Amino acid sequence: MKGRGKAMRCKQVELLLAEYYENSLDPDDKKRMELHLAECETCRLRLKEIEETFRLLTKDSVPPPEENFWTNFLPQVRSRIEAEDKPRFTPFPKPRLAFALMSVLVAVTLSFFLFNVDKKNLAEFQAEPVMETIFTESELSSYSDQLAEILSSQGDESLPIEVFLSNEEREDLELTEKLLDEDYLSQRNLNSMLDELNLRELKQLEEDIKDLQIGDIL
Amino acid sequence: MKDEKDSSLVRRFKKGDEKAFNQLVIRYQKKIYHLIYRMIRNHQDTADLSTEVFVRAYKGLKGFEERSSFYVWLAKIAVNLCINFSKRERFRSFLSIFDLSEKPAVTNSPAETMEEEELKLAIDGAIKNLPPRQRSTFVLKFYQGLSHQEIAEIMEISEGAAKANYFQAIKKLKKLLYQYR
Predict the structure, then answer these.
(1) Least Cα separation, residue B105 to chain A (angstroms)
(2) Which of A1, A10, A122, B74 is spaced 20 to 30 Å from A49 by Cα?
(3) Contact (Cβ atoms closer than 8 angstroms) between residue B33 and residue B50
(4) Judged by CB atoms within 8 Å, which residues 110-149 of A form the interface with B?
(5) For B37-54, what is the mean pLDDT?
(6) Residue B23 reports pLDDT greater than 50
(7) What is the mean pLDDT of residues A69-91?
(8) Residues from chain A contacting residue B26 (CB–CB below 8 Å)
(9) Distance (Å, rounded) from C-alpha A83 to C-alpha A85?
């Protein structure tokens, strides 16, 4: 122990009193303990308390079990071992396997619901009025024809429509024209173009198209 | 062979000799029973747990690497079972606060005098009052005579921690049994 050879202090002695009483200290510690006890009344008192407590605890005996307990003990252990060795039908013989299976099931169920929610969200998103839901392809095509017809009847000298429009309206018109472009329709690039717009822009576009009186403008 | 060493019996069992295991049970049944009784303090639970110790020993003996003595290994099973049992009991006794039905007093030997009975109950209460790890350390050292090193091995703690547990257990017992000294 620490401080070997030096005189012991009360705190050190207190820690070793039980071992001293049990005679399990090494000779050096025992000698130093005895030197301290010879001089310290407090520690002698503590040692006495330990002696008395141990004396009480020694009186505590284990009551003998019933008469044939020991005769039956080994057979009982053996029958328990045999009983546990017998294969029992359990749907999940290994709890870890059952747990793993349960986790997979939960994960699949959750992902199923989450997937459904995503689909709903997607449906909601798609339900947002975009060009294709306002005008069918044939309608767009007919507008395109009308536009071409009107423009050709007005000739090259006619004033461009853009002159009467504000900047915003002009942009909308450009976009509408772009959307009405046959190439766009034939290539089905409408969606890819709309994809580039965010939701707010799409809503704005929808409002603008609703308000846009193509015939009046032309 | 009556004095055959534990290690020899263990090896025989590992080779498939079931009788070797029986000999180990007979050799240590009382010591294990006493160890458990000192911690649990009632016969019925002690009997059940003692059986459980040997059933678990049977299952695990083939994997026993003999780094410690057979008894230290066996005591480790017993102590772990007792600690888990004590934890469950603490929870049950907490729940029993709400159970108002009267419980019969358990006495093992009616011939005991009142004084002895009172002392026995006081020791019962004092030991049960120790936290499970201190209780195990105290029983292993005081009643079973194991060294701090062996206790450290059983409890999977350092030797210093085993000594500290023992010191704390004695300190509490001294306080709890003060009036009976």
Answers:
(1) 16
(2) A1
(3) yes
(4) none
(5) 95
(6) yes
(7) 86
(8) 74
(9) 5
pTM: 0.63
Q: How far is CA A10 from the centre of its chain?
A: 55
Kindly report the backbone phi and psi dihedral angles of residue A86, in degrees, each rounded to the nearest multiple of 5, phi listed first.
-65, 135
A85 touches chain B (CB under 8 A): no
Report residue B17 as tokens.
């000799």
CA-to-CA distance for B68 and B150, rounded, in angstroms? 8
Q: List, in order, residues 6 or more apart from B108 with CB less than 8 Å away.
A: A63, B43
Tokens of A99: 């747990």
Q: State how far the Cα of A154 lies from the Cα of A63, in Å rounded to an integer.
A: 119
Which of B22, B47, B123 has the CB atom closest to A65's CB atom?
A: B47
Q: What is the number of helices (H) and of strands (E) in chain B?
A: 8, 0
| Partner B contacted by A52 (CB < 8 A) | yes
Q: Where are the domains of chain A?
A: 10-58, 127-217
Task: Count the helices and strands in chain A (H runs, E runs).
Answer: 12, 0
Selecting from A18, A49, A56 the residue whose C-beta is nearest the C-beta of B123 gives A56
Q: Per the structure block, which two tokens stand in for A177?
A: 């024209």
Element (H, E) at B177: none
- Reported ipTM: 0.85
Radius of gyration of chain A (CA): 48
In chain B, the domains with their CATH numbers are 1-103 (1.10.1740.10), 106-181 (1.10.10.10)
Contact between chains at B43 and A65 (C-beta distance less than 8 A)? yes
How far apart are the C-alpha atoms of A207 and B164, rounded to whole Å? 80
Instruction: For residue B54, count other CB atoms closer than 10 A to its CB.
Output: 27
The torsion angle over the Cα atoms of residues B166, B171, B173 and B177, rounded to 10 degrees, is: 160
CA distance readout (Å), B21 to B32, B51, B62, B154: 15, 14, 11, 21
Q: What is the mean pLDDT of residues A26-47?
A: 94
Q: What is the C-alpha R_g of chain B?
A: 18
Q: Identify whether the C-beta of residue B13 lies closer than 8 Å to the C-beta of residue B21.
A: yes
In a mutagenesis test of the B interface, which of A1, A49, A50, A62 is the best target, namely the one with the most B β-carbons within 10 Å?
A62
Q: At what angle do helices B6-14 and B70-95 cross, to 10 degrees?
A: 80
